[in-house]
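S1.2 Input.
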Amino acid sequence: MGIEVRVPALPESVSDATVVTWHKQPGETVRREETLVDIETDKVVFEVPAPGDGILSDICKGEGDTVGSEEVLAVIEPAAISKPAPAMAAINSTEVPAGNHALSPAVRHLIMEYQLDPDAITSTGKDGRLTKPDVLNFLAARNEPESPAPRSDPRRTDRPPALRPVTDVAEAGVRREPMSRLRARIAERLLESQQTTAALTTFNEINMQAVFALRARYRDRFEEKHQTKLGLMSFFVKATVEALKQFPLLNASVEGNDILYHDYYNIGIAVASPRGLVVPTLKQADTLGFAEIEQSIGDFATRAREGKLSIDELSGGTFSISNGGVFGSLLSTPILNPPQSALLGMHKIEDRPVAEAGEVKIRPMMYLALTYDHRIIDGKDAVRFLVTIKETLEDPARLLLDV
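S1.3 Output.
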C-alpha cells in the first residue's frame, strides 16, 4: 500500500495553500524526511518532507494548484529500486528528449506534446529547474507556421494555436506577472486596514544622543558577552513595552463591539524578505532582555530571507514596530496591521540642529510616527504614548531603573 504525502495541518487563520515547487518527480527515489515539495500560504513558504522511503509514484497536485489542510499531495510506493512512473506512461511511451532534467508533470506533458528539446529552452526556475512558463514562452517566441502537430494525435493536421507568453506583453516594455500569495494577502490586509479602521497618525521626534552614547560605551562588552550586536531595536522594543503598560488601549484590539485587552506584550517586528514584508512576533517581549531581543530579531531577519519563518512566528502580535529608516525613509504614515490597533514607525536618523539650554547643538534626530485606530484610542492617549517612548529613549537609564 502506498504512503500518502499530505498537506500539514494548517492553522485556523490559514484556509488553504498553493503548491509552489516539486523537488522530486514521479519515478524518483525519495528518502524519509527528504524535502518533496514547497507549499506557500498567505504567510510563509514551508517544506513538506517525505513521510517514508520509497519511489514517488504519483503526484496528485501540480505546481500552482490550491490545496487544503491534510489533502493528499502525492503517493510514495515503498521500494528499493527505481521504476518508471505509471502516470507518465499514460501520456506517452516515448522518453523525453535528451537532457537530464527533473520536470514537473505539466512541463513534461508540453515537452512531449510539442516534441521539444529541454536543453534548447532557457530555464528560470529554482536551481535551474525548467518551469511551465519557460516552455510556454519558448513556444510563443518560436511561433513557427511549420510547427508539427502534437505527437498525441498523429492524424491531426491543424497547427497548434499561437501561444502568448505568460508575461502577457500588451505593448513593448510592459510585462504582466501574477501576485504571489503573500503579496496578494498583503494587498488584501492593507485594503482591509484602510476600510475597517479609523486610522490616524501622530508624530514626534527623538534625540538619539543618549542611546548612541550608551551603545558606544557598552557595545564591545555586550557583543563579547552575548555574541550579538547591540542595535537600536532592542531599545525601542523595551521602550514600547513600558509605554504599552501605561496605555493598555494601544495593546488592545477591536472585535465586533468589544475591546479585547491583552495582558501580554507580543511585539511584531516588520522584516523585509524577497517575497515581501513579513512581521514575525517577539512573544512575551516584556520578559526578554536586550540580548534576547537582538538575537531574536537577527534570527527573524535571516530566516525571513531564507523563507523559513513558521506560521506561529508570524501570528499573535498585539503591537508592531516598522523601521523604514533602514531604507532611508525620513517620514511616513504606517498602515495598521489588523487586528492590532496601533503601530510605531521608526525613521532615518539624521544630524540636525536643535536647541539645548539656549544653545544650538547638532544631534542625531529621528522622527517617530504612531498610527492608531481612533475608534478606541483617543488622540491624547496616542500622543502621550509617543511622548513616553520619546522620554524613555532620551533618558535610557529609565529602562534599567523601571521609572
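S1.4 Remarks. Residues 207 and 315 are 33 Å apart (CA to CA).
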